[in-house]
Amino acid sequence: MPNPRLLLCALLPALIAFSATSAAAPEPTDESAKPLSVQQILDASPASDWRAPDPDNTLYMDLDAGRVVIELAPQFAPEHVANIRTLAKEGFWDGLSIYRSQDNFVVQFGDPTGDEATRKSLGGAKAHLPAEFERVDPALNFHALPDTDGWAPQVGFVDGFAAARDPATGTTWMAHCYGALGTGRDMAADSSNGAELYVVTGQSPRQLDRNITLVGRVIQGMPLLSVIRRGPEPMGMYDDPGQRTPIKAIRLASEVPAAERIQLELLRTDSATFDAVTEARRNRRDDWYKVPAGHIDLCNVPLPSRAPTVKP
Amino acid sequence: MPNPRLLLCALLPALIAFSATSAAAPEPTDESAKPLSVQQILDASPASDWRAPDPDNTLYMDLDAGRVVIELAPQFAPEHVANIRTLAKEGFWDGLSIYRSQDNFVVQFGDPTGDEATRKSLGGAKAHLPAEFERVDPALNFHALPDTDGWAPQVGFVDGFAAARDPATGTTWMAHCYGALGTGRDMAADSSNGAELYVVTGQSPRQLDRNITLVGRVIQGMPLLSVIRRGPEPMGMYDDPGQRTPIKAIRLASEVPAAERIQLELLRTDSATFDAVTEARRNRRDDWYKVPAGHIDLCNVPLPSRAPTVKP
């Protein structure tokens, strides 16, 4: 009988190994020729392949269960991000809640009050913003994947954010992958202002791409959001306020004392290390895998993070 | 300021509308030409487009939080399904647990005991089975999607199960979509026996396709599995048995008194209604969507179910 601990390990992504050889190459036969594991690739990476997120574009969402860390994407949604920064500085979300959790889709938070007269004031933030569904900006640092995608002509990453591009029109947009942060809107394209936010917790709903403004992604703490009990009402809503998840505070990291900030480094998605990690996942070369896929979906690409390495 | 209730509705998949017209067709301009919603399509479906799952191939997994209903796929994994039926009849999983919950990946259950001497006996079930990663069976009722897929030459559905196919080799295999049920294995391809099972709870890990035996899918109750708190140890394991989720029982529906069975009908995936629902999701034509995707991923296709309609 197989050892059940090994049965478990067999499904562990972190154990998946890597080889720079093509899918048609023969398996290595000696120990020295073994493909590097993802961890070995990361361990060998130069410090320059990592970056610390900008505290001015980092949000801390504090729940009773812990802290969710979000990186904002001003390169994609400058007006929404500016508004969100204002809302965070003024404590807009403090004391509000996650009022929706829909299975295999999103959690959503903000002020669920339908009556405008009693809704929480937006304070110094703007009530109306333009839609920021896509960008035409040659300065965007788009790092393309070679992999085909059914949703877009081209996919890749911009500064850590999963994105898609249409070379014919020169437009680039963020993609709805797990952990993406977006802004709820009404029927009009320009009806979002950043006060109502959602995070993708299910199978990538890419049909929303180019239909709604994405503003960032969760870089730490997804397990705090993904396990929130699904709301019993349609769309995963909770009519009973007592079932909602309270938000203690949402703050910009730059507004939090330096000693209380989360120290985190993210692998640069335009680095050789990132390419090597992605290839290790595209063609898995360890002994467990019998058929390497030869492909990776945009939303399956790992985005490694780590605690900062201390220099001696 | 937009009404936040509308902001929420805007993200509701069930409200998405449908049109049989092509992506290039002009938007309808009068009320009568409005595209049908998914619900309207389902409401207009003939009874013959629905089926009741076979109680002999349906599992009830009873947790403290409620019942998870699983449909087995003997057309893909006859030997594993036969073993699982034996294990269920003999109560193998009763009193065992979900001992792993890894964020954006899987939950896994069975007997986590590493020591073979103290592991739960497989009873009348076989300890060794052949790998059942893919099938060469012209009788499989493969209903192809027109949509491109990066993981496989062709994708579609077989009797409600998301699947992929390689016309060049004549092989068909089940796909790792949300809710797929698979069998843990060791390094050897033929080292699974159906006692250790996992359910996909995250972004479709399609790289596992053709590398492990899938045996069915969850047809009701995913929210009971998807919210299980992620295990604190590597791979989402719980070293503390008190943190695991107890399994009260796993039974074949056919072994449960008829009056206690879940009454459920599934939309046939080879029906015209299914094609219409899929098209409604591929090209969303309601007023909220500004850019219909013109594409749907295999793992985003909805698989509707309903309580049986009572005949007058």
From TrEMBL, chains A, B:
What's the protein called, per UniProt?
peptidylprolyl isomerase
Which GO molecular-function terms appear in the entry? peptidyl-prolyl cis-trans isomerase activity
Give its E.C. classification number.
Answer: 5.2.1.8
Residues in a coiled coil are: none
Q: For the PPIase cyclophilin-type domain, which residue ranges apply? A: 64-252
| Signal peptide interval | 1-25
- Alphabetical list of PANTHER family matching this protein: PEPTIDYL-PROLYL CIS-TRANS ISOMERASE CYP38, CHLOROPLASTIC
InterPro entries referenced in this protein's UniProt entry, alphabetically: Cyclophilin-like_dom_sf, Cyclophilin-type_PPIase_dom, E_coli_cyclophilin_A-like
Per its UniProt record, what PROSITE patterns does this chain match? CSA_PPIASE_2 (PS50072)
Q: Which UniProt keywords apply?
A: Isomerase, Rotamase, Signal
Taxonomy, superkingdom: Bacteria
